[in-house]
What does this fold into?
Amino acid sequence: MCAVAGCAKRRRAGGQLLTRLLSRARQSHQSAWCNPDQVSLSIKDHSRRHVLDGKRILLIVGGGIAAYKSLELIRLLAREGIGARVILTRAGAEFVTPLSLGSLSGDKVYQELFSLTDEAEMGHIELSRSADLVVVCPATADLMAKAANGLANDLASTALLATDKPVLMVPTMNVRMWEHAATKRNVAQLRADGVTVMEPDVGPMACGEFGAGRLPEPERIAKEVRRMLAGPKGHGPLAGFRAIITAGPTREPLDPVRFISNHSSGKQGYAIADALARLGADVRLVTGPTQLPIPDGVTALRVETAVEMQDAVKASLPADIFIGVAAVADWRPATRAQGKLKLKGGAEDKVALQLVENPDILKSIGAKRKDRPRLVIGFAAETSDVERHARGKLARKGCDWIVANDVSGDVMGGADNEVLLVTKAGTERWPRMGKAEVAMKLAERIAATFDDSRTNAAE
Ligand code: CTP
It folds into this structure.
């Protein structure tokens, strides 16, 4: 725990946060999240079903100034159909109320080890095993010390000792406490016991000091929860399938310091690589220059130009799935100057730039060839008449599916996407959603397609 003063103020702040979270959830038509079963339904209603839908975590909320972030964590997980049952420690209750946690999780919040009503409903042993994953957030120095030494003198520590499920600890504490030899020993012991302990963030702390010990942002915690719930690599509906994804822009150099490129951020392509890997596929990401980290479990090949991208894709064949998400530059300068091009001192008022066409990577992969992947998917970035242009590209490039979007708004570089899935059978309009959600929906659709073809082949 970092500080204990000003609890009433913090509780008021927690109340305001809860009100904001509730209204945000209602705005996004997810007011049914209070009941985990209804969460799944509302997500299904919006065609947003996820493979982790129906998974449950046991969330142990310890005492710390950042305990309020556990509310946001519950909300983020609920969006994907992942439910939370909550144990609130005595110290945790100084920072967030059982009412806030119970309203967001849609379930009773458990606080006492020796509660006759709790034991009648669900014993602490069953509580510790009823979830797919136990998450301790925030994990204080005290909670970690107890767990590392097998103490069981309250509900949280007893559940941690009794559970047979994987455990994720998300530490937060003052930097000196985090760096103390005793904490280091406890963290090492927990890791040796198979517990996943996240690294805390570095930055200014509520107590005025600076360093490692801040609770990671809820998005990062949610990502770790999803990773752990998805199970070990090589498992999942796409295990055994190989996928090649192109992503990001390409850069076509004019001279050693200048190039032609575009605004692609690579977010959608990276999210698709991540989603396919999470479903168990062996993923090769051929990426142009981006600022993004390579997703866990994905093999990346970094390239600059369209020609390099095509070479890298061909070298990665054979594959079962090819998805061209890259915004490949259509042209490149006909020549690349060896030295930096110089101004002619105003002697020319117009400078002509000669361009030649780049290879069409998607078209060459979609063409009938011996090593054509079984499923070839292209993206179509359009600014008008989206469906007509997409259908034209589907035929012209020999694709099986085209994911089409209107890029006249803030799609390039933005967090959301609104796409059409155009196949030979018809067109589906997907609602606007985050790029990670588009990616997971597409990955699940691919998994279902391969599953159907397996079943048909077996019949
Ligand atoms: N693509 C490709 N190689 C290229 C150009 C595009 O592999 N040289 C792929 C993209 O990765 C995407 C699809 O083709 O999957 C469509 O890209 P898009 O930029 O929308 O279309 P273009 O083919 O460039 O056609 P236009 O610019 O006329 O819309």
Observations:
- The first strand starts at residue 56 and ends at 61.
